[in-house]
């Protein structure tokens, strides 16, 4: 149920504010903007970092090819339990840390991330971006501020951005060519 997921998200935010980084799960408009750049006809290996209660995960599974696989990497054990309840055979829930990504998933067509990288120490963000670059040619990231934009532009070849006003709070979706 949407309400119970929001409640669970708020509880986890109160326990781990820096790690969860938002008071509620992403809304429909933001999720649609995040998945839009993905070519679902071609993508067979998709990775999601920081899926939380799974609003992006569910839409990815709806849009993905029947033979595609979705590996989600989530550091929070309670969120992992909820994600496993989705019960789709294409979904692999990994209870792990995105900064160890290449050891968890060696290759992907695309990485999509809800990680609150603006809250992370610089070194952790840099380590995560390096790990993404090792495994995928394309990376999508949302944030509630533009604070990480400079880091993304410095690290990657091409970065485009889309502001999503129809989300509370408004958000920015970056599409990155690694
Ligand atoms: C802003 S929430 C986004 C949740 C969900 N994607 C959404 O859009 O509603 C950030 C998520 O990243 C997870 N997270 C934070 N640090 C992480 C890390 N190092 N590795 C994996 N997941 C992490 C948090 O537990 C949380 O679920």
Question: Which helices and strands occur, and which strands form pairs?
Answer:
Blueprint: H1 2-15, H2 17-20, H3 28-35, E1 45-49, H4 55-63, E2 69-74, H5 77-84, E3 91-95, H6 101-104, E4 110-113, H7 122-135, E5 138-143, H8 149-155, E6 158-164, E7 171-177
Parallel strand pairs: 1-2, 1-4, 2-3, 4-5
Antiparallel strand pairs: 5-7, 6-7
The protein binds S-adenosylmethionine (SAM).
S-adenosylmethionine binds next to helix 2, helix 4 and strand 2.
Question: Which terms summarize this structure?
Answer:
38% helix, binds S-adenosylmethionine, 8 helices, Rossmann fold, globular, single chain, 178 residues
Structure description:
- With 178 residues, the chain is of the alpha/beta class.
- Helix 3 crosses helix 4 (55-63).
- The chain has a seven-stranded mixed beta sheet with strand order 3-2-1-4-5-7-6, with helices on both faces.
- The protein has a single domain (26-177), classed as Rossmann fold (3-Layer(aba) Sandwich), CATH 3.40.50.150.
- Helix content is 38%, strand content 22%.
- Bound molecules: S-adenosylmethionine (SAM).
- S-adenosylmethionine is lined by residues 19-22, 25-26, 49-52, 55-56, 73-76, 79, 97-99, 114-116.
